[in-house]
């Protein structure tokens, strides 16, 4: 999402990559979110900083598309969907994840 040009293409490639990359086991941030309470303060701070930076990158890409819907709301939906996809990667067939990504991207394009 940090690549140029900004826009839906960057978001699409990240979501499709999440659904199609069999070498990945999910997102570290998504997989450790429930464990943040036991992490050292410095580790929590790094995760929080990265989370804020990621949200800003996605938001910039969403804004570049000039959506009809609220860009921040769409950004939160995208990040929540990506986290859910990461969690499902260990227990769901790849074809199903790709279909879910396609459906979500179609929904986003209408927004």
Give the secondary structure arrangement, pairings included.
Elements (H helix, E strand, L loop, with lengths): L7 H13 L7 H5 L8 H24 L6 H18 L5 H16 L2
Description:
The protein has 111 residues and is mostly helical. 68% of the residues lie in helices and 0% in strands. It has five helices and no strands. The chain has helices spanning 8-20, 28-32, 41-64, 71-88, 94-109. Helix 1 packs antiparallel against helix 5 (94-109) and helix 4 runs antiparallel to helix 5. The protein is globular and about 40 Å long. The protein starts with 7 loop residues before the first helix and ends with a helix.
What are the secondary-structure elements, in order, as H or E? HHHHH
Our estimate of the beta-strand percent is under 5%
**Could you name the ranges where pLDDT drops below 50 across 5 or more consecutive residues?**
none
- This entry's quaternary arrangement is single chain
Which structural category fits the helices and strands? mainly alpha
